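Model the whole thing, not chain by chain.
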Amino acid sequence: MKSLILKDFYNISHNAKSILIILLVFAVVFLPSSGIQNYIFICAILCSMMIITTFSFDEQSNWPLYAMIMPVSKKDIIAGKYMVLFSFSFIGVLFGIVAGAIGSIIAGNYFQAADAAPAIPLPLLALIALSCSTVFGSISIPLVIRFGAEKGRILVLASFLIPAGLCYIAYHALIFFGLNLTENLKTILLYCSPVPAAIWNYIMYKISCAIFVGQDLQ
Amino acid sequence: MTEAILQIEHLSKQYPGFLLDDISFSIPKGTIMGLIGENGAGKSTTIKAALDLVKKDSGSVAFWGQELSSSKQLKEDIGVVFDGVNFYETLTPAKVGNISAAAYRQWDERLYLDYLNRFGLPANKEIKSFSKGMKTKLCLAAALSHAPKLLILDEATSGLDPVMRDDILDIFLGFVQDENHSILMSSHISTDLEQIADYITFIHQGKALFCKTKDELRYRYGIIRCKTGFFDTIDKSEILACRKDNCQWDILVADKEKAKRKYRNAIVDDATIDDILLLYVKGEYTK
């Protein structure tokens, strides 16, 4: 699996400069108005979306065909993609923290979000950003495997809308069943967010495996 | 055939508009098996089904007596080269080496660098600047550097100039000097196979028409060339395939010496693999 991850990092390193420029432009645009909290989320989600680009590279070179002649299974290939997604998200969060901190100091709003609700500790914020970005990225993987990188890119909106819709439904269901979402409870839920994110990622991994295992490689 | 490295039995795979039908052959140790057939005959599908890249509908494939899915070690012992490079074009041979080294326990970095050197491939130049021949050589270097015992080549020499093809064929011949090594090589360039193959399996419209030693094809098969009047006198049970070209019939027979004795007034030529392929593919009558 190490080889699969290495291959994706080599491939994406070619785009590293343009991604860096985009993240820095976003820093200039969003840091003064939205603060570091939102910027970390933006970085994490943007970096997680690079997973689709890796599929695009694979498609162009017909990599899966070659990968399957190496001593790896189809499940290893999918597991490798999820590892890469996690790594991209992690790098995005780290970049968001470092660039966000530097930018915030320069902008004079260090660790302050505009109209921020209760301040969330930075480590927790990073964890939530990591969870969210992997949730968004993970749904794009089965979509891209099923429909291809180009169509999957169009369908990527679904990877935002589906989890957001599910959260919205869950939120209103809780209210419907009379559960009062106090600030305290919201904080607890946020602390717990990596757990549903991990479950979500596992389900998406299983779905991706089921799709990919059934595919012929031409 | 004894001690088969690869044994394919009754392999079938159906696609809309195409059926790979009941393919069987085996590759003994130390030999080169050539798969020939026209474009779209089913050579690549056979190879992909054997490698589990496409799901077979029926049949069995065994490498050293085991199914490929049963052990990852089996894949360590198989080197595969497809037509074209499967690495993204911004990678370099050095990075391809690092990726392969991480994949194969048997990877030999020194051997890989030797191959790069021998093939004249710059280690740090991006693949996109390589010619078709250089890309094939890179794939071959990667395939040979994890000490495979079986090389599978799917149209690996197509699109190469004769000099490069000759270089690569020499490498294949060198590879099978080790009697534990074998090669399965598909190509529609029959002269390549004529040069190096020990066995030929001919696939036509998804069916394996025959699997024979190359020597049997070269030294026993023949082509009777005659006019229509003479054609009518020939025992049809002896005809494998025939084709009418203007006023002349070309008739493929399995025993040219017997044909020479029986039809003394006819011209009986040796049959090249190309002749055999053409007669089967374009022939009016086959059995």
